[in-house]
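Subject: Interface between my chains keeps coming out wrong

I've been trying for a while to get a sensible model of this assembly. When I model each chain on its own everything looks fine, but I need the whole thing in one frame so I can look at the contacts. Pasting all components below, labels as-is. Any help appreciated, I'm running out of ideas.
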Amino acid sequence: MESASNHPSQASLLATERSKPSDSVPAGSPDFSHGSVAWFHRLTIEQRVLAGFSLVFVGILVVSAISYHNTSILLTNRGLDGRSHDLIQLLNNIDAAMSEAEDAHRRYLVTGEASYLEIYKKVVKQKPTFTAYLKDLIRESPEQQQRVGFLDRMMDRQLSAESKAIAQFQEGGFRAVKKMAFEGAGKRELGVIHQIIAEMDLHERQTVGRRVVESAAGTRNTIVLLGIGALLQLVLLAWVYYLIRHDITERRRVAGELQRRGELLEAANKELEAFSYSVSHDLRAPLRHIDGYAALLRKSVEHSLNDKAARYLQTISDSAKQMGQLIDDLLVFSRMGRQEMLRTAVNLDQVIKSILSDLRLDLQGREISWTIAALPEVQGDPAMLRQVFMNLIANAVKFTSARPIAAIEIGVEHPSSTEIVLFVRDNGVGFDMQYATKLFGVFQRLHRADEFEGTGIGLANVRRIVHRHGGRTWAEGVPDKGATFYVLLPGRRLDS
Amino acid sequence: MTVAKPILLAEDNPRDAELALAAMEAEHISDKVVLCHDGAEVLDYLYCRGQFKSRLRGNPAVVFLDLKMPKVNGLEVLRTIKADVNLRPIPVVMLTSSREERDLADSYALGANAYVVKPVEFHKFLSAVKELGTFWGVINEPPPESCRSTQ
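Reply #2:
Try treating it as a single job with all components included. I did that and got this:
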């Protein structure tokens, strides 16, 4: 991806050189084409999994909604089918009843038999029920409603024509209705009624047929939808599974890598320990020999030694001693990083007191005005913290050696409940603030060796110890005015 | 001081040995020093075997042991001495370059009587060796020879 995106950017660079306005197009287009992928890659694994599950959820909702809709249509169609069936049955009945009425009235006209009149009257009585039932069954189909209206009128006309004929028969006897008795009073209407009923029957059957096809299609669609939905959800779930699986594998790999590095680090630490042991043991021996043989040499040629030769021998000894000191300091520094740390309450007042008593010999012949504030109790390693203040105070004493009256102040800066800022201030040679960052480095010295002694490791030790306590160090100084060294230690515990 | 017991100095480095002997010479005790060049020689001496087969019987007044020596190192020699009923009374002084806490702890745990770090400065080394030689070889009363049959 790196190399791919390099080319367009080079192209855009060239474009910029040639003409300014045109460079936005080549620079913008590759970004845009990778936009969707980059967008996805910016998501965390949690967001991706959530997105996957959300899609599955939405899919289930959509499929369920559509299935519900299709099924309810099927159910409705089933109900409609029942009604259509009833309607066809009813139409048959009406057809039969109307035929029966026509037949019965004609027989009555011919025979005058009362039983035929009864049959006819029964049909007349049934008619409103037929109509009401019909209207109820076809209330959702306007076409059939038109036909039913017509059918209703035709049935009324047939029955009224027949009733009229019956009435004439009862008044004037068979003669009055002879013609009608043979032809039938509502014969024409009955024909129309048959025709309408046949039409309605056909229409209803067609509707049922159409509905059957529709339902079959709906069912098929639902099945296909369910299949596709299930497949999509399976794919999505598989994708989410892959994501989670991939993430777990990755995490496992990282954990393994971390463990491997931890082991490497431990091995490296062991090696370092062996190294510093060897340094401590083997590097001192030759130095001892240099100093020792220089001393023996001096002793054996004592009488013939001139000043120059004596100075050379002295320099050899001094250099050996200095290197011995360097090795010791370096070992202390390296040990300081690895040494187990204690955590107890440390009374700084006592620490300072014991340091000053240790420095008694070095302080002989010096005039120093000490200002020592009451110091708080802190949490930490007593020996290490002692080393910190030992180094800071020894430095202050060392760098004020040129002052007739040295002033050294040890105190606490604006005490707060969370952090403790301690300082050691002197009126010594100070330093230029531009070198402030170098002060705490290993073997960093701001003064020449002939001005002030030292190996340049004291403040490095201070910083290392304070860092191990979770604190910070910094310094402020003005050349020839003095310096202040600060040590920040993280909060005292208010509990216990 | 009539029958002066020897001082056993175990030092693999000839220069260190020479410097130590030079220091003891000044105190006129260098003639009592028996020099061993490694841990195996120390054990040979103590058990009167090898080159020391025909030496005068008896334990030394003190053993100055370097820690780092070829063949058998100082700690192993110390362990052997303190595990042997006949040798256990011999005072053993560790004389070493190592300031490592681990070495200190191990030595005292094994029963060392003293632990001295060789100073880099010769004059300090000189005074240390002198004092050690005088104290252990002259001033200190060695343990009585309880069992002389050291075969």
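Reply #3:
Confirming on my end. Chain B is about 40% helix and 15% strand.
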